[in-house]
Amino acid sequence: MGHTTAFSVLGLLSLLVGTCFSSSLRDQVRDRISVLPGQPRNVGFAQYSGYVTVNEQAGRALFYWLVESPAVRGAESRPLVLWLNGGPGCSSVAYGAAEEIGPFHVRPDGKTLYLNPYSWNNLANLLFLESPAGVGFSYSNRTSDLYTAGDQRTAEDAYTFLVNWFERFPQYKHRDFYIAGESYAGHYVPQLSQIVYRRNKGIRNPAINFKGFLVGNAVTDDYHDYIGTFEYWWTHGLISDSSYHMLRAACNSGSSQHPSLECMRALNVAEAELGNIDPYSIFTRPCNNTASLRRNLRGHYPWMSRAYDPCTERHAEVYFNLPEVQKALHANVTRISYPWKTCSDIVGNYWADSPLSMLPIYSELIAAGLKIWVYSGDTDAVVPVTATRYSIDALKLPTITNWHPWYDNGKVGGWSQVYKGLTFVTVTGAGHEVPLHRPRQAFIVFRSFLENKPMPT
Ligand SMILES: *[C@@H]1O[C@H](CO)[C@@H](O)[C@H](O)[C@H]1NC(C)=O
Ligand SMILES: *[C@@H]1O[C@H](CO)[C@@H](O)[C@H](O)[C@H]1NC(C)=O
Ligand SMILES: *[C@@H]1O[C@H](CO)[C@@H](O)[C@H](O)[C@H]1NC(C)=O
């Protein structure tokens, strides 16, 4: 090949790359959030949000919200973390961003935001994704998609999202990238991780520089999760002996997303026995706006007078439905026919495929040498610590460091066990949403994960 040909090919290439880069850069600039209604001023970090089309034929687009690290903390050299909530059908904006790990939490007025001092964006750039289509601001123009959502399409759409998103944000290519999430995202996170890992295989210096994942109170393996959940309910005195035996007999196989009729009956009996507690956090009061009841409960249970607000998701529902908020977020640009909700009943109720176990994926990704951390708030009765322990035990991993307490300022923050290829951490006193109930301890877990260091002792 002569000089001229090589030169012109290179010239054409750089021209193409240049055009592509500038159009994606235009999208990025368009997505920049100037300021959110009611947010504190001069926060020192940048935010972007908008849509990424994942299927043109159907007209499916996923909504993301990127919250960067503060410039003074070196945002441009920090890793990127994708955060997913579960349900299925629940929004990462409602939970992850607005009441767990994001910098802005919503005040009870539903109009103003306050700073979360333990926001994970102090350590990493955070990418919140509302997934799948039908959740939050993410939509599909083909309505039937909402009634046929399932694990597989969710993972494939999320992967397509990532590929397109990295084109829009080329500054994040080749940077350390992690996937994190909680609850039913215990499915999404390993499934998406597996796709990214497999597509990256054999590529040197891949654009999506995937390093590992982190899950909390994660649905992992239906069989072991069930055993551990029923045991938790019984040992915490939440259900009767007979219900315990009935659950063990009726729900010993099959899917937690699609339980048998017999299992469903046993679950209904158990639920009635649990009564009006918050199963996601069994020692804190459930959300109830009546002032008298609140006062009563505070009188009985002094530890409940702390700052934690069990109605916080209701405030988010007010805030994210404000037209001026949607405008600032570049959300709902197609005038979606239903309101923004914290969880989509349609997506959740009609959920299709849901594999029984994530453990084979764990085995594959552990063998690949990825960084894998699993944490658990130990006052959650929905995906309890016992469920997670049985599921991890089923992986039969050799232990590197035995079960031991970890400390925060001289106080036990929880316990940890390091396995070959997987680190397990509990956070004591935390419910299902660990960063909501124990923000400081959750921050320490996240920092240790990023630094790949054992929990502080
Ligand atoms: C969905 O339909 C609206 C209205 O026709 C259109 O503006 C929008 O681009 C479509 N979304 C996608 C992802 O194709
Ligand atoms: C809230 O409190 C009122 C009055 O005590 C009660 O009737 C209602 O059922 C409670 N709601 C919830 C969701 O607990
Ligand atoms: C989208 O906007 C329309 C008004 O244009 C509103 O009725 C609808 O509730 C909004 N939906 C979502 C998901 O934000």
TrEMBL record:
Keywords: Carboxypeptidase, Disulfide bond, Glycoprotein, Hydrolase, Protease, Secreted, Signal. One of its GO terms (biological process) is proteolysis. Residues 1-22 form the signal peptide. It comes from Carpinus fangiana. SUPFAM superfamilies: alpha/beta-Hydrolases. GO terms for molecular function: serine-type carboxypeptidase activity. Pfam families: Peptidase_S10 (PF00450). The keyword Nucleus does not apply. It is found in: Secreted. This is Carboxypeptidase. Probable carboxypeptidase. It comes from the Eukaryota.
